[in-house]
UniProtKB/TrEMBL annotation:
GO terms for cellular component: mitochondrion. Gene3D superfamilies: Glutaredoxin. The gene is Nxnl1. It comes from the Eukaryota. Residues 187-207 are annotated as: Disordered. It comes from Todus mexicanus (Puerto Rican tody). SUPFAM superfamilies: Thioredoxin-like. This is NXNL1 protein.
């Protein structure tokens, strides 16, 4: 799937961190069903559909609803008129959503490639880029999260033992807790050294 985005930049979250290296893109997209959401915060039909898509995504990926996040990633391809409108829309959506940067010509490439003329459109793709559903808006409205199982089977995903709600925040959590673990290790090491030293001292006094 990362091949579709080779040489491109995606925004990793609402804080607008960039995901552009091949390694990061592979990490983000590999072995997952990809949803390309073509929409706009100003489009009346999108305003009705976007809350449904938000709930759909959260029920499949958020630890409040599921023990293990589904192998699902979403990239927002906006038709917003301004960068501020795109930013405001993304702030109201799940943080795990990716997005094509505002004004990026790649947006037009994707629209042409998947024959998008009106919005909202949700294109469902296999990890290799093959289309599973050309527009899943009606299916999501009708079936909700239940339709993901059909996509998962069609995508032939490898069922990996993913950690709870795997997402971009996982790296942040690791980087935050690693220093604490290292500190604990150092303290434990010092305690062991002190105990060993005390025992040696006791042995010398007894001798």
């Amino acid at each position: 799937m990362a091949a579709l985005f080779t040489g491109k930049v995606l925004m990793a979250n609402r804080d607008e961190d960039e995901v552009e290296t091949e390694r990061e893109l592979n990490w983000a997209l590999e072995n997952k069903v990809l949803l390309l959401y073509f929409g706009s915060g100003q489009c009346p039909r999108c305003r009705r559909f976007s809350p449904l898509l938000k709930d759909f995504f959260l029920r499949l990926t958020d630890e409040f609803y599921v023990e293990r996040a589904s192998q699902l990633v979403l990239v927002y391809v906006s038709r917003d008129e301004t960068e501020q409108q795109q930013r405001a829309f993304l702030r109201s959506m799940p943080k795990r959503w990716l997005a094509v940067p505002f004004g990026d010509a790649f947006k037009r490439e994707l629209e042409l490639r998947f024959a998008v003329s009106e919005v909202p459109v949700v294109v469902v793709l296999k990890p290799n880029g093959d289309v599973i559903v050309g527009n899943a808006v009606e299916e999501i409205q009708r079936l909700g999260p239940a339709c993901f199982q059909n996509w998962r089977e069609a995508a032939d995903l490898v069922d990996r033992n993913f950690r709870l709600a795997e997402d971009f925040d996982e790296r942040s959590r690791r980087s935050f807790t690693d220093p604490l673990r290292r500190l604990k290790y150092k303290l434990d090491k010092k305690k062991r050294k002190k105990k060993k030293k005390d025992k040696t001292k006791e042995g010398e006094e007894e001798g």
